[in-house]
Structure formats: C-alpha cells, structure tokens
Design the sequence.
C-alpha cells in the first residue's frame, strides 16, 4: 500500500489532505469530527485581533454556480474571518492539538498591518502548541476594505514586511496564503520568500459576483436590496489555482519553495495533479462544505489506489513530476500533429461537434444525410473543440499522426504522409481491423 504520510515543513500528517481555513475549521466541534473522518490536518478559520467584534451579515452569505445536473461548480461567499472570540478559539486550538498530536493544526491569522498587532497575537498562538501559522493575505471582501486580507496580499512590500515580523516573533513555520486577485502571482510569492516565509499556500478566493436577481436588480447574495462582490471558490477555480501553483513552482526565484495547494480540490485526482505540479499537500474547503467531512475517505482511497497502480510508494515519489513539462508557448513543438477521430460506435448523432466545427471553427466535420459525422483530416487543425463539446466522453479523441512539418508562412502542415491518415498504422480503426 502506498504511504500517504506527508511531512510539510517538518509537520507530519497521515495524508496530504488538510481542511482549508473556512467554516469547516471554525470550531473545536468541527475539527474533532474532521479528524475522526480522516483529515490529515486543518488550517483553523482565520483569527483576528481582540478589539471590535467581527460581525457577519445576517442575510445569505453564499452565491453559487451549478452544472446542468445541479452539481455545485462554483461557490461565492461574503463571510468575514471568525466571529468567535480570540480567547475561545485559542483555548479550543490548544485542546484539539493536545488530543490529536499526529494531525497538523495550523492557525490562520489576519490582524492589522502594524507590527504591534502581530507582536501581540503571535506569542498567544504559539502557546497553543499548534504546528504553524498561515497568514491570511487573501480574503477579498470585508477585511480588505479595512486594510487587511487581499489589501496586504496585493502589495509585495507589505507581504515581505509582515512575514518578517512573523519570523521575528514566532518560532514555528510560517505559511503565507496568497490572493489570486493580482496580475502576476510570482511577485507576491517572491516577496513571501524574501520575507523568510517557509511556504506559500494558494489560492484564496477570487473576486466575483455570481448573479444578478432580475426582479430586485441586485447582485446575489442580496442583503436588504444590495449586494457586494464575494470570494469565488470550488471546482470552477481549480484551473486558475493550478496555473498559479505551476508559475511559482517553475519560477527560478521560488522554485523549490514548499507549496500548499488550494482551489477546487474535489477528488483524489485534483490532489494528485496539484502535487505533480509541485505542491507538498493540498487544502480543501468547498468539497467538504458540499459533501461533508467523509469526502476525504474517497480522496484517500483514490489517491492510494492510483499510487499503487503507478508504483509510487510515497507522495514524494511523484511530487513536482509535471513541473518540467510546463513551458512557455514558444517552446511547444509545432511539428506535433493530431487529428480528431469520431468513434461511430459511441456517437449518438447529436450533431454538437458538427455545429461547433461548422459554425465556429474550421469546417472539418462532415455530416451525411443519415447523420454520420466524420472528420475531414485535411481541414482539421486539431483544435479539440469537438472533443470538448461532445456529450459522450471518449467518443471523439485526438489521435497523433506522424510528425508533420509546419510551413511557417502559411501555418499549414506539410508533412509527407499524414494526409493518408485513413490507412496509417497509428489509426486505431486500421489497427482494430487487422
Ligand atoms: C465560506 C468561506 C469562508 C472562508 N473563510 C476563509 C478564512 O477565514 N480564511 C482564509 O484564509 N480563507 C477562507 N476561505 C477560503 C478558503 O480557505 C479557500 O482558500 C478557498 O475556498 C479555495 O478552496 P476551495 O476551492 O477548496 O473552496 C473561505 C472560503 C469560504 C467558502
């Protein structure tokens, strides 16, 4: 059996699945149940300093985007950091860490961008025995307007400054959580590194308005007739997070810096992809909020089964394996040629591929009178749109054909033999017929 144990910044956890700082980790009751369900670690819901209490809205906090089957694809929230007292949270963290020494307990913190505020809170957090801290420089709503959260995360100099304070007043690992609401994620990541951060975690939520109520003419969620932007997360944000993780993993200045990946992790496969892209572990929020704590069991068994199948005995075995294969566009091989292939056995004759290709792409799909759809190899530019719009998974595939040569003036493939694809040995239908 594959060993899922991870040691992230020297912090051991039985598996790479941590709960991200959010409602699932807001209190002792939740965190104990999460650990019983099998989560390897938690980042406690963000603590603020003592002072004016944090007051959340009493109307709806969440908006959402769904797929046609009502599966939740994107979640939007306008929630603030914890609205429970600092003292209560610190007491609970202390008890939980004592009872679960084998799990990772990280404390997320967001206090004003003043040295004294950090100097005050850090020793109290350290006294809980928690394994490390995560600096919430990412929350895009509510706290940002007060000069915290993403207001700090959008200014690399502030990130560096606060990280330096934390390294000065706290002895355990410091993770800097980055906001995706910036132009180039490498700048804040570099600032975190320069400030002495032990790791970065990303992404926090993305600025968003999920919908407008066309009766009240207000953004949703609507609070007394008004709405505001919230933070977007869930499966829909995974591609954005994966790219940002890749950017940090392959940037020469931050390459090798430990990364805790967050954003849309819903299945073991998402986690494996982030780890292959250089992450040391993953954090999960929306999937737990959608399916409950037990979803981690599927993640554990799925990852473990895949690792066994691939012969990976530990997480370390495949961590970062995909990073060398991320490149810039200009280094892509223009002589690599594929063509779309429609399986007539699987085709349900819906015609989506035809409509998409005929109306918006390269007129490379032919429709016969009895609705048989075939690809015109000479016209197919391998854009992959037909594969993506086809409702039957695996019905249309992109098949590699012998290396062509590109005429750089016309952009056309001028390979000697790819045109005769119907009889080429790489063509699966030819192979099957033999
Ligand atoms: C309701 C809600 C509250 C959140 N609160 C916090 C928070 O207090 N601190 C923080 O760092 N991130 C917070 N987040 C962001 C998550 O930790 C995480 O970065 C984000 O949801 C992306 O992960 P996901 O796609 O798995 O949900 C919150 C997210 C949600 C949905």
Sequence:
């Amino acid at each position: 059996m594959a060993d899922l144990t991870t040691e992230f910044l020297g912090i051991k956890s039985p598996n790479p699945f941590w709960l991200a700082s959010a409602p699932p980790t807001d209190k002792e009751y939740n965190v104990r149940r999460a650990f019983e369900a099998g989560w390897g670690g938690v980042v406690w819901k963000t603590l603020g300093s003592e002072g004016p209490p944090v007051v959340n809205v009493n109307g709806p906090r969440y908006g959402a985007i769904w797929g046609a089957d009502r599966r939740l694809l994107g979640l939007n929230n306008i929630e603030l950091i914890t609205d429970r007292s600092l003292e209560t949270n610190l007491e609970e963290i202390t008890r939980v860490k004592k009872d679960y020494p084998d799990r990772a307990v990280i404390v997320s913190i967001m206090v004003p961008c003043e040295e004294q505020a950090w100097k005050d809170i850090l020793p109290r957090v350290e006294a809980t025995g928690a394994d490390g801290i995560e600096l919430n420089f990412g929350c895009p709503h509510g706290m940002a307007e007060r000069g915290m959260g993403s207001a700090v995360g959008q200014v690399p100099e502030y990130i560096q400054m606060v990280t330096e304070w934390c390294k000065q007043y706290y002895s355990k690992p410091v993770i800097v959580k980055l906001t995706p609401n910036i132009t180039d994620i490498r700048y804040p990541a570099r600032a975190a590194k320069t400030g002495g951060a032990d790791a970065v975690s990303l992404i926090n939520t993305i600025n968003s308005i999920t919908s407008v109520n066309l009766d009240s003419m207000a953004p949703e969620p609507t609070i007394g007739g008004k709405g505001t932007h919230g933070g977007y997360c869930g499966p829909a944000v995974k591609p954005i997070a994966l790219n940002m993780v890749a950017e940090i993993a392959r940037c020469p200045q931050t390459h090798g810096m430990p990364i805790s990946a967050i954003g849309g992790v819903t299945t073991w496969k998402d986690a494996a992809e982030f780890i292959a892209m250089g992450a040391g572990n993953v954090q999960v929020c929306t999937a737990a909020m959608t399916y409950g704590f037990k979803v981690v069991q599927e993640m554990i068994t799925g990852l473990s089964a895949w690792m066994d199948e691939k012969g990976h005995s530990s997480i370390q075995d495949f961590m970062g394996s995909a990073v060398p294969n991320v490149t810039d566009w200009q280094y892509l091989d223009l002589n690599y040629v594929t063509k779309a292939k429609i399986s007539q056995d699987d085709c349900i004759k819906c015609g989506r591929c035809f409509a998409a290709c005929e109306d918006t792409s390269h007129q490379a799909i032919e429709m016969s009178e009895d609705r048989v759809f075939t690809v015109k190899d000479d016209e197919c530019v391998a854009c992959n749109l037909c594969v993506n719009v086809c409702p039957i998974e695996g019905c249309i595939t992109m098949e590699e054909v012998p290396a062509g040569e590109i005429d750089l003036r016309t952009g056309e493939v001028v390979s000697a033999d790819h045109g005769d694809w119907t009889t080429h040995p790489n063509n699966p239908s030819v192979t099957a017929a033999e």
User: Anything to note?
Assistant: The longest strand covers residues 41-47.
